[in-house]
Amino acid sequence: MVMRIPSGKDDPVYWVKYHRHNVKMFKAVAVSDPDHKWECLAWADIERRRVEEFTNRPEWRQADDGPSGVVS
Question: What are the helix (H) ranges across the chain?
Answer without folding.
Answer: 12-32, 37-55
